[in-house]
Design goal:
The structure holds two protein chains of two kinds. Chain A is an all-alpha fold. Chain A contains 15 helices and no strands. Chain A has a single domain, classed as MetI-like (MetI-like fold), CATH 1.10.3720. The longest helix of chain A has 36 residues, at 88-123. Classes of the chains: A mainly alpha, B mainly alpha. Chain A: It is a multi-pass membrane protein.
Chain lengths: 335, 303
C-alpha cells in the first residue's frame, strides 16, 4: 500500500510542475501588455513603464521569472491582483467557502436523489419506472445549465416570486462571517430570518449546479447495480431466502457503490466548470464568478493564480479518489 | 509484406463487412431512443445545410415595429413571426433555423480536430518507447487537471473571442480523452496474436499502427466522438453565453441566450426557444451515442 501511495504521489510532481508552467505561460501569451492594462485610461510614461516592469520583474529573462514565480507558489505567494491590489491567495480563500458551500449542497442533492433513483431503476429494469427515470436522467445529462438557470428564474423568481435572483443573502442582514459558510454564519448570528434567507438564496443555484452530477450518479448507480445484481453471490443470497430489500441494500448497493464513489470524486472538475456558469448567472460571490470577472478585466495575476489553485485542487481530489479506490479495492494496488 | 496475405485479408474483410454493418444496424434499430435521436439529428443536419433557404425571414433583418412580439398563439402574436421576435425585432424562428448550422459546424470541426489529433497522439503513445509514452500521458494529465470550460475560457481570452477560437479551445480541451482512449485500446490490441503475426509477416510500424491495429480500436472512439459532439455544442453555447464565443449578431444559440438575458422576465420566448434548441439537439446526439455504444460494444449491451 505504501508503495502504491508513493508512486501515485510521484506522478503528482511532474503534473504540478506542468500546471504551474502552463498557468505561468498564459499570462505571457495573453494579448495586451499587463502594465499598460494596469495603467488604464491615464496611460503611462516610458520612465514609469520601465520602473513598473522592473518592479514586477518583466524585464528579466523568462526562466528567471518562472523560477521566481515557482518558488513564490511553493511559499503560497501568487502575486497581487491588479485591480484590488490584494494578494491572490487571500482573495481565493475568501471567496472559496462560497463555492464550496454551493458545490457541497449541489453534491448532496445529487447523491440523495441520484442514488435511490439509480437503485429503483435497476431493480425495476425495463419497466416503466426504469424508463421514466433514465429518460429524465438523460435529459438532465444533456441540459445546458445556463439555460436551465434562466428557466428556473423565470418560473420561481419571476412568476411565483418564491426565490431571490442573485447573491447569497438579503442585504438587510449583516453579521460577521468567521467560517465563510453562509448557512452556518447566519445560524450563528442568531438574527431572525437570516438563515431562512440564506437557504432561499441557495435553492436555485443548488438545483442548477446539481443537475448534471445528479443525472450522472443516477445513470452510474443503475449500471453498477445491474452489474452487481448479476453476480453469483447475489444469486446465493437469493437462494438462501433473503428478502429482496435486504439483498438490494446490503449485498448489491454496497458493492455497487465503489464505481459510484469514483464518479462522485471525478465530478469535482464538472462541478467547478458548472460553478463558473452558475455563479455568473446568480451573481454568487465565489471563485467561478471571480475567475470570469478577472478574465474580462484582464487581471492577469488572478487568472494565473486562480487557474493554478483550481487545477491543483482538482488534482488533489483525483489523487485522493485514486488512493481511496486503492484502499477499497486491493486489486488496483498491485498494478 | 506478401501479396497473398494482403489479398486474403482484403477478401476476408470484403465478406465480413456487409454482415457487420447489418449486425450493427440490427442492434441499433432495437434501441428506440437511438432511432429517434438519429431522426432528430437528421433534421438538425438538414437545417444546418439548408437553413437560410428554409427560414421565413432573413436571420438578421430587424422589423423594428414588431420588436418583442410574442409567439403566434399568445395575444399580440401573429403568424408572420411564428415564434415571436427578439428585442431588435428579428424573427426568432428564422434565427433558430439559421443557428443550427453554427452548432453543427462546431460539432463537426471540434470532433474532427480533437479526434484526428487525439488518435494520432494516442497511436504514437501506444507504439512509441516507454519514455515518450510517459511524457505524452503526463501532458494529457496536465490538460485534464483544468476544468474544461475554464481552460477553454482562458484559451479564448488569449486567442480573442470568436466562434473559430472557441472551437480551437474546445478541441484542445477534448483531445486528451481521445488520446487516453486510443492508447488504452492500442495497448490491449498490441498483445493479440493477429498483431504479432502481422509483424512476423513483415509489416512496418506505420502499417501496424494504421492498417492492422487502428481499425480494431475504432468502436470506443466512435462512441466518444458522438458524446464529444454534444459536449462541443454545449461548451460552445456556454462560451457564447459568457460572451466568449460567437459574437452578435451571429444567430448562435448560446449567444442568442446571452443577448436575451435582460428580457427574461418580460419576454419568456426569447430565452426559452434557443435553450430548447440546444437541449433537443444535445439530447438527440446523446441518445444516438448511447445507441452506438450498445450496438458497437457487446460488453456493455447488458446495461
Amino acid at each position: 500500500m505504501l508503495n502504491y501511495v508513493l508512486s501515485r504521489l510521484l506522478t503528482f510532481v511532474p503534473t504540478f510542475l506542468g500546471v504551474t508552467l502552463i498557468s505561468f505561460a498564459f499570462i505571457r501569451v495573453l494579448p495586451g501588455d499587463p502594465i499598460i492594462v494596469m495603467a488604464g485610461e491615464r496611460g503611462v510614461s516610458q520612465e514609469r513603464y520601465d520602473q513598473l516592469a522592473a518592479q514586477f520583474g518583466f524585464d528579466r529573462p523568462m526562466y528567471v521569472q518562472f523560477w521566481d514565480y515557482f518558488t513564490g507558489v511553493l511559499q503560497g505567494d501568487l502575486g497581487n491582483s491588479f485591480v484590488t491590489k490584494k494578494p491572490v491567495w487571500d482573495e481565493f480563500f475568501t471567496l472559496f467557502p462560497a463555492t464550496l458551500e454551493l458545490s457541497l449542497c449541489a453534491m448532496i442533492l445529487a447523491i440523495i436523489l441520484g442514488l435511490p433513483a439509480g437503485v429503483i431503476a435497476a431493480v425495476n429494469r425495463g419497466k416503466f419506472f426504469d424508463r421514466a427515470l433514465m429518460s429524465t436522467a438523460l435529459v438532465g445529462y444533456s441540459m445546458p445549465i445556463f439555460w436551465w438557470a434562466l428557466l428556473l428564474i423565470i418560473v420561481f423568481s419571476g412568476n411565483l416570486g418564491w426565490t431571490p435572483v442573485s447573491g447569497r443573502i438579503d442585504l438587510l442582514y449583516y453579521f460577521p462571517d468567521p467560517t465563510g459558510f453562509m448557512l452556518i454564519d447566519s445560524l450563528a448570528s442568531g438574527q431572525k430570518g437570516a438563515f431562512w434567507s440564506a437557504i432561499r438564496h441557495l435553492i436555485l443555484p443548488t438545483i442548477v449546479l446539481g443537475t448534471i452530477p445528479l443525472a450522472v450518479i443516477a445513470r452510474q448507480t443503475r449500471s453498477a447495480m445491474l452489474e452487481v445484481l448479476g453476480e453469483d453471490y447475489v444469486r446465493t443470497a437469493r437462494a438462501k431466502g433473503m428478502s429482496p430489500g435486504r439483498i438490494n441494500s446490503i449485498h448489491a448497493l454496497r458493492n455497487a457503490l465503489i464505481p459510484v464513489i469514483t464518479v462522485i470524486g471525478l465530478s469535482v472538475g464538472t462541478l467547478l466548470a458548472g460553478a463558473i456558469l452558475t455563479e455568473t448567472i446568480f451573481s454568487w460571490p465565489g471563485i467561478g464568478k471571480w475567475m470570469v470577472d478577472s478574465i474580462f478585466r484582464r487581471d492577469y495575476p488572478v487568472v494565473q493564480g486562480g487557474l493554478l489553485l483550481i487545477a491543483v485542487m482538482v488534482m488533489i481530489v483525483n489523487l485522493t479518489v485514486d488512493m481511496l479506490y486503492g484502499l477499497i479495492n486491493p486489486k488496483i494496488r498491485k498494478r | 509484406m506478401t501479396d497473398a496475405s494482403s489479398t486474403q485479408t482484403a477478401s476476408a474483410i470484403g465478406e465480413e463487412r456487409p454482415s457487420r454493418l447489418k449486425e450493427f444496424w440490427f442492434y441499433f434499430r432495437e434501441n428506440r431512443g437511438a432511432v429517434i435521436g438519429l431522426w432528430i439529428f437528421a433534421i438538425f443536419a438538414f437545417l444546418a445545410l439548408f437553413g437560410p433557404w428554409i427560414a421565413p425571414h432573413d436571420a438578421t433583418e430587424q422589423f423594428r415595429t414588431n420588436a418583442l412580439q410574442p409567439p403566434f398563439w399568445q395575444e399580440g402574436g401573429s403568424t408572420e413571426f411564428l415564434l415571436g421576435t427578439d428585442p431588435l425585432g428579428r424573427d426568432m424562428l428564422s434565427r433558430l433555423i439559421v443557428g443550427a448550422r453554427f452548432s453543427f459546424f462546431v460539432g463537426i470541426v471540434v470532433v474532427s480536430v480533437a479526434a484526428s489529433g487525439g488518435i494520432l497522439i494516442g497511436l504514437l503513445a501506444g507504439f512509441a518507447p516507454k519514455w515518450v509514452d510517459t511524457i505524452i500521458m503526463r501532458i494529457m494529465d496536465i490538460i485534464l487537471a483544468f476544468p474544461s470550460l475554464l481552460l477553454a475560457l482562458v484559451l479564448v481570452a488569449i486567442l480573442g473571442p470568436s466562434l473559430i477560437n472557441a472551437m480551437i479551445a474546445i478541441a484542445i480541451v477534448l483531445q486528451p480523452h481521445y488520446v487516453r482512449l486510443t492508447r488504452a485500446s492500442v495497448m490491449s490490441e498490441r498483445q493479440k496474436d493477429y498483431v504479432t503475426s502481422a509483424r512476423v509477416v513483415g509489416a512496418g510500424t506505420l502499417r501496424l499502427m494504421f492498417v492492422t491495429v487502428l481499425p480494431n480500436c475504432l468502436s470506443p472512439i466512435i462512441v466518444q466522438a458522438a458524446l464529444s459532439f454534444s459536449t462541443a455544442i454545449l461548451d460552445a453555447a456556454a462560451l457564447g453565453f459568457l460572451g466568449m464565443g460567437a459574437q452578435p449578431p451571429t444567430p448562435e444559440w448560446g449567444t442568442m441566450l446571452a443577448e436575451a438575458r435582460e428580457f427574461i422576465l418580460r419576454a419568456w420566448w426569447v430565452v426559452t426557444f434557443p435553450g430548447l434548441a440546444i437541449l433537443v439537439t444535445v439530447l438527440a446526439i446523446n441518445l444516438l451515442g448511447d445507441g452506438l455504444r450498445d450496438a458497437l460494444d457487446p460488453k456493455l449491451k447488458r446495461s
